[in-house]
Design a protein that fits this description.
With 296 residues, this protein is an alpha+beta fold. The protein has 8 helices and 15 strands. The two termini are 17 Å apart.
Length: 296
C-alpha cells in the first residue's frame, strides 16, 4: 500500500470516528451546544490556542425560525435575512458564506453563520417528513464547558507499531492538561491532586476526581466558570493496549483526559458495513450524506 493510500485510509477512519462522536452527542441531547473545529485558548494563556474537534458551550440565546419559503441552497446570508433577531446583534467579529443546506440536500451541521465578541451563532436545519424546514439558531458562549477530541492512530504497513502513536497521544494529552482551570498535580506517592484558584486568589486542592465531581455537582459559579471537562474518543485496537497490559499511549491519554471513551474495531467495522457497504433503506440518506462529505 502506498503512503498516499495509507494516509487516505487513516483520514477516512478518523472521519468515521468523528461522525460517530458527533451523532453520539446528538443522541445525548446536546446538538444545540455543539461547535465544530473551534480554536480553544489554554487556561489563562490566550496567546496559545488549539483547534478541537467538538466543543460544548452554554447557550445564551436560542430561536427556531421557519424557512419554508426559502429555496435551496440555504445559505448563511438567507438565514440572517430570515431571522429578524440577528439584526439586533452589535459589532460582528465575522460573518460566513456557508451553505447550511445544498441544492441536493446535504446538511452542514452546527454551522457558524456569524460571530460577535460573546461567541458564535450556530445554526442547525430541521427537516420534517412533510418537507417543511426550520432552523434552530443558538448564540453560544465562546468558553466551552466540555471538549471532545477524536484519536485514530494507524500502523504503517509492515510495522507492528506506528512511530506516530505516542506523538499523537502526547498532542492530545497536552491539550487536555492545559485548557481547564482545574489543573492536575502529581504527588510523590503517585496521587493526582486537583488544584483550582478561587475568586479570592487562594488555591483549593483535593483528590482530582473528588474535586472534579464536587465542582460539577456544586453551585459555585466562580469554580464552574473556568472548568472544561475533557473527553478523549479513541479507537481501541492493537496499538493502544492488549488484554495483558496497557501501552504507554493509553496511559498518557488516560492520565490526561477526564474521560476516555473507546470505539472497538468491531464497532467501526459494523458502522462501515451497515451504513456504507450494505445499508438498510432507512440509512440510505445517511449513506448519501456521508459520501458527499467524504468524497473519494
Amino acid at each position: 500500500m502506498s503512503c498516499r493510500k495509507s494516509h487516505a485510509a487513516s483520514t477516512t477512519a478518523r472521519g468515521i470516528v468523528e461522525i460517530i462522536t458527533y451523532y453520539t452527542l446528538r443522541a445525548w441531547g446536546l446538538r444545540d451546544h455543539i461547535a465544530i473545529e473551534r480554536p480553544l485558548a489554554e487556561f489563562a494563556n490566550s496567546e496559545i490556542r488549539h483547534n478541537v474537534e467538538f466543543s460544548l458551550h452554554p447557550i445564551a440565546w436560542k430561536e427556531v425560525v421557519p424557512i419554508e419559503q426559502v429555496k435551496r441552497p440555504l445559505t448563511a446570508a438567507k438565514i440572517r435575512k430570515a431571522c429578524a433577531t440577528l439584526g439586533q446583534f452589535g459589532a460582528l467579529v465575522a460573518t460566513t458564506t456557508n451553505d447550511l443546506l445544498t441544492t441536493d440536500g446535504v446538511l452542514r451541521n452546527s454551522c457558524v453563520i456569524l460571530e460577535d465578541d460573546w461567541g458564535p451563532v450556530v445554526c442547525n436545519v430541521d427537516l420534517s417528513e412533510t418537507g417543511s424546514q426550520t432552523v434552530t439558531l443558538c448564540h453560544l458562549h465562546s468558553h466551552p464547558f466540555a471538549v471532545f477530541e477524536c484519536k485514530r492512530v494507524g500502523v504503517e504497513e509492515g510495522m507492528r507499531k506506528g512511530p506516530q502513536t505516542i506523538e499523537k497521544a502526547k498532542q492530545g494529552a497536552y491539550v487536555a492538561r492545559t485548557v481547564s482551570a482545574l489543573q492536575k498535580v502529581r504527588l510523590r506517592n503517585g496521587q493526582i491532586l486537583g488544584v483550582v484558584e478561587r475568586s479570592d486568589g487562594t488555591l483549593y486542592t483535593k483528590d482530582y476526581n473528588v474535586l472534579l465531581s464536587e465542582i460539577v455537582k456544586g453551585n459555585d459559579p466562580t469554580l464552574l466558570a473556568g472548568l472544561i471537562l475533557t473527553v478523549g474518543v479513541v479507537s481501541n485496537h492493537g496499538n493502544w493496549f492488549t488484554s495483558e497490559r496497557h501501552n504507554k499511549e493509553l496511559k498518557v491519554l488516560a492520565q490526561s483526559y477526564d474521560w476516555l471513551l473507546f470505539l472497538t474495531d468491531r464497532g467501526l467495522a459494523q458502522f462501515v458495513s451497515k451504513l456504507l457497504l450494505a445499508p438498510t433503506p432507512e440509512l440510505e440518506p445517511a449513506r448519501h450524506a456521508f459520501l458527499s462529505s467524504y468524497p473519494g
